[in-house]
Amino acid sequence: MSSAGTADHPRDEDLVAYLDGELSLSDRQSIDQALSESADLRQRLEQLRQGGRPFREAFDTLLDQAPMDRLMAALPEPTLSASVISTSKATPPRPANDWQSIGVAAMLLLTLGIGFAVGYGTSSDRAGEREVALLAELDEMEAELEEAEAAADAAPVVTAKGWRQAVADYQMLFTTESLTPDQGGGDALALASERVGLPLDPATRAASGLQFRRAQLLAFKDKPLVQLAYLGDDGVPVAFCIIASNKPEAETQYEVRNGLGIVHWIIGGYGLMVIGDLPEDRLNRIASDLRKSIDL
Fold this sequence. Notes:
single chain, rod-shaped, Phosphorylase Kinase, domain 1, six-stranded antiparallel sheet
């Protein structure tokens, strides 16, 4: 029996050990004698048997003894993506791996708490053994967290978007009204032709069903990017874009970005693309007409 308890006045921890069958024979006989002589003690024992064990006190003691520095060190610092930082001042959601780490730490605290509460009132040797075992589990969990962080660091990083994606993002801003006024003045077309080094006037008349509206000189990574904007007979904006490229030549390919169809190819040191919200076969026909109009 606990040294603080006596046969006449057993403490709650002695009664818990009695219920758990963890007392020596002599201590158990002493409790039996005390129970036979005290109705209050029998009532207290029944309360403990039905769940009224001193877990709160056990957890209070646990919080004083738990290795909080090690637990907190096991949690990674929360990080914010650049897009969240630049677009929102609202409190961002905690990354999923942070919640997982907190969950691991919470489970550990719970494990420590249950182990302490169940062992409340047992010998100091047994309590020490349980603490050693639980701290070993903490070390194992810390190692697992470190492995998870290392795996996350090794994950592929999304590279910067290429010029086709940049154009697709820009094209999303166009509407029928954007190109209704005729902005295809000769000065703009002449400047675009000069900067890109190609005669572009033939491309303004090459594709059937498209009305040339304007030439626009843009830039991507310090290289001139020419955009010839058209309005289809059905009111759908279409763009023909040209940029200098040092990549190997490639035949026409089709892809979809931002819900828009793109036909692109590389020839004669230039990358070219046609983009618009049109079916693949229609875009391919337009691209074929425009490709023939450029002297490459």
